Amino acid sequence: MTTDNPRRRHARRPRRRTRVVLAIGAAAAVLAVAALAVPLLLPPGPRPLFHLPVACGETWQLGTYPGHDDYDVDLFPTEGEAWGRPVLASAAGTVTEAGINGSLGGRTPDDPQGPRGRGGGYWVKIDHGGRWETQYLHMLEPPLVEVGQKVAQGQQIGKLGSTGNSGAPHLHYEQRRGWEKVETWFDGEPSGITHDDREYTVRRTSNNCGGQP
């Protein structure tokens, strides 16, 4: 005849609890990974109706040049002082980056020929949903928005400047679909700025009159 040892009976329970806890933890980890990975595998949604990231009614020059990188757009005002001009959200979305990209350098309105920095200087990135993003670089001062903040179309997010690797006050702007830069569209039309194999400029008037959540 055998008898069950109470100590052994009690010793089995913690092991079972441990296995259950580990199984629950593993399942939670799998669900968390799936929640992050699945949206990235889905095809991008329809292109948002992007507007120029500058004040309503103003005409700006959009351009690129050899070595600028495909699809990158530099914006310069055609009239008035460039320094400090409002930079606006092209479409409604959520801020995912707001700070310094690279280093600032020393170019300011008081010292426009100061030392260059690296990268984009003060910058902002906005997620517009459907895996569409916009980026705004070389701004004058720290962004006027914070990571996680929701912004409306036409809301001011910063001021135009020349921080980072910039030769003159302007706004470097990009539209991205998924992980890839694409040709910028404004008001439902392509900008015509694609490859950087030659210098190319075009003038466009902003219809970014704001107010769209």
Describe this structure in words.
By secondary structure, this protein is of the alpha+beta class. It has 2 domains: 14-43; 58-206, Glucose Permease (Domain IIA), CATH 2.70.70. It has 1 helix and 13 strands, in the order αβββββββββββββ. The strands form 3 sheets. Strands 1, 2, 4, 5, 6, 7, 9, 10 and 13 form a 9-stranded antiparallel beta sheet that branches. Strands 3-8 form a two-stranded antiparallel ribbon. Strands 11-12 form a two-stranded antiparallel ribbon. The longest helix has 36 residues, at 6-41. Mean pLDDT is 88; it is low at 32-38.
Could you give a quick summary of the protein structure above?
This protein is α+β, with helices and mostly antiparallel strands. It has 1 helix and 13 strands. It holds the Pfam family Peptidase_M23.
- Helix-and-strand structural type: alpha+beta
Total helical elements: 1
Largest β-sheet summary = 9 strands, antiparallel
Give the overall shape. Answer: globular
The figure for the number of domains is 2
- The low-pLDDT segments are 32-38
Helix content: 10-25%
What's the N-to-C terminus distance?
Answer: 78 Å
Order of helices and strands: HEEEEEEEEEEEEE
The CATH homologous superfamily of the largest domain is called Glucose Permease (Domain IIA)
Mean pLDDT: 88
Predict the CATH topology of the largest domain: Glucose Permease (Domain IIA)
